Amino acid sequence: MKIIVTDEVAQEGLAILQRDPRVQMDIKLGLKKEELYSIIGDYDVIITRSGTTVDKPLLDHATNLKLVARAGVGVDNVDVDYASAKGVIVVNAPFGNTNSAAEHAMALLLSFCRNVTKANGSLKGGAWKRAPFTGYELKGRTAGVIGLGKVGGRVATRLKAFECEVLACDPYIAEKRAHDLGVKLVTLDEIIKNCDIITVHTPLTSETHNMIGKKELAAMKDGVIIINAARGGIINEEAMLEALDSGRVAGAAFDVWSQEPPDSEILKKLIGHEKMVVTPHLGANTFEAQVNVAVDVAKEILRYMDEQPIENAINIPKFDASLMGQMRPYLNLVNVLADFIIQLVDTNLNKITFTYTGGLAQYDCTPITVCGLASLLNRRVEQEVNMVNAQLVADNMGIVVEEVKSTHSEDFSNMITVTIEGPGEKRLISGTVFEGVPRIVKLRDYQMDFRPEEHMLLLAYGDRPGIIGKIGTILGKHEINIAAMNLGRREKKGEAMVILSLDSAVPADVVEEVRAATDATFVKPLYLITAK
User: Fold this and answer.
1) Which pLDDT band, with edges at 50, 70 and 90, does 409 fall under?
2) Quick one: which of 289, 350, 457, 463 could link to 496 by a disulfide (CB 3.0–4.6 Å)?
3) Helices (H), 89-235
4) Is residue 318 over pLDDT 60?
5) Which reaction is recorded as catalysed by this protein (predicted)?
6) In b/e form, how buried is each residue of 253-281, taking b as 16+ CB within 10 angstroms?
7) 292 pLDDT exceeds 70?
8) What is the DSSP letter of 140?
9) Do 63 and 41 contact (CB within 8 A), yes or no?
């Protein structure tokens, strides 16, 4: 295995590879593009950081390249899509800075509580003052951790060591994860209302953007302390500034900003606020973290060489061609089923079961299971999940994954059922392939038969005359066209379930209008990426 290293990477990581007799490594730093193009065709692996752009021209010259190893979190300098098209695996090291980020969050919290930055400036300025810098203890306080992933979990552990009572909020992990950490899993509202300290450790997504704004800050306890060492934009910075000015929030400590470097007037005022402790995105900026990311990518390369599962692959390596030909229609089906059912689940995931019935059960269904698991988890976690690392991600989240097979099937020659179980909740969906097209044939205990589309609306309600007409009237009023409708019910005037295929998405206010008009017990707009 020939490896070229084109950027500065910690020697501790390179040494792991250099000890392997299968590896021939060349360290060539500072190469010009033309120089790199002329030699890259000789290498199987390239190890980079941010200094090398792995783009289409480089990949076109890299005729033997099998793996791009980015010794760090970001892959902005790698054309992942084109690498995938070329069959090149891209790996990174998203968790090499986990401990550094957790420790920095604690450093920010302690610096604020004990007035470290203010006292430091005062003493260096020649003053000997103690009274102005009276601080707070952590012992006995209630701390809320929003996001209980690798970083949030470490922060929770450290807060417990300081004798805090720790509450945690994370809808995307199993209850076992919280139990193992010795923290109480609660809702976001409970964190907001009950905690003296709140620290966020989630990715920045459409769901978490401005997750803490004016409404949430107003509902917090007087004198709350807020820490953000995750991503800028999770906490609304203008609302944060107002809460500090009003005295509702005793103080805050931020390492990350919605704009980096910060340039807006709001950010400048927030950074300069006397109740703020601030740092310029230093969470991963430790010597140890740089070593960790180098070691992590080195281990990924060894896993690839040993044909072992790769934990942090950004894209999906290809299956054996014969296996793919056999499984391709069902890989598409399981993606659709997963994409559909995960949008119906609001609780933590404890168990996921993939059931195969009919002739399909005679074969190795592992590729289908892993593909479906990746589709489910990609809606729930920060890192990119694929068929290589899906099971590892599920294991880390404490999710039990089971595969059940039965060659006996009364209804269809082949059928896949995905069942998701969480606290007090169970969702089930079944599907088959008809003339190469996915069909959903069962939802919960309702027999259905419809082709999944990009935009859909699912309702459950008490069966009575006129309901379908009301739904159609409301959607028509808002110029949302119904392409198809499928109705399921157990008995006359019992509970009914209807699934509508639509030409466009249903806005939230229209969903609420439909809910009110139908007294729906459940209503959910669905957006199926896999059906586009």
Assistant:
1) confident
2) 463
3) 98-113, 116-124, 150-161, 175-181, 188-194, 214-219
4) no
5) (R)-2-hydroxyglutarate + NAD(+) = 2-oxoglutarate + NADH + H(+); (2R)-3-phosphoglycerate + NAD(+) = 3-phosphooxypyruvate + NADH + H(+)
6) bbbbbbeeebeeebbeebeebebbbbbeb
7) yes
8) T
9) yes
Placement of tokens 């399921």 in the chain: 488
Residue 490 has φ and ψ, to the nearest 5°, of: -90, -40
**pLDDT tens-digit series, residues 421-467:** 998 889 999 999 988 899 999 998 888 899 999 999 999 988 888 89
Q: Is 45 exposed, middle or buried (0-12, 13-18, 19+ CB in 10 A)?
A: buried
Are 337 and 418 spatial neighbours (Cβ–Cβ below 8 Å)?
A: yes
Residue 43's φ and ψ, nearest 5 degrees, are -110, 150
Tokens of 386: 């694929």
Q: Which residue from 147, 137, 200 is spatially nearest to 177, judged by alpha carbons? A: 147
* Residue 293, token pair as written in the block: 């990311």
Edge-to-edge strand ranges of the sheet holding 437-443? 400-406, 351-358, 414-422, 425-434, 437-443, 446-450
- pLDDT higher than threshold 80 for residue 323: no
Residue in the block written with tokens 């949430």: 216
Structure tokens at 443: 């939802």
Token output for 413: 């020659």
Find the DSSP H helices in 262-389.
265-272, 287-305, 321-341, 366-378
The DSSP letter of residue 344 is G
Sign of CA dihedral 220, 137, 276, 288: negative
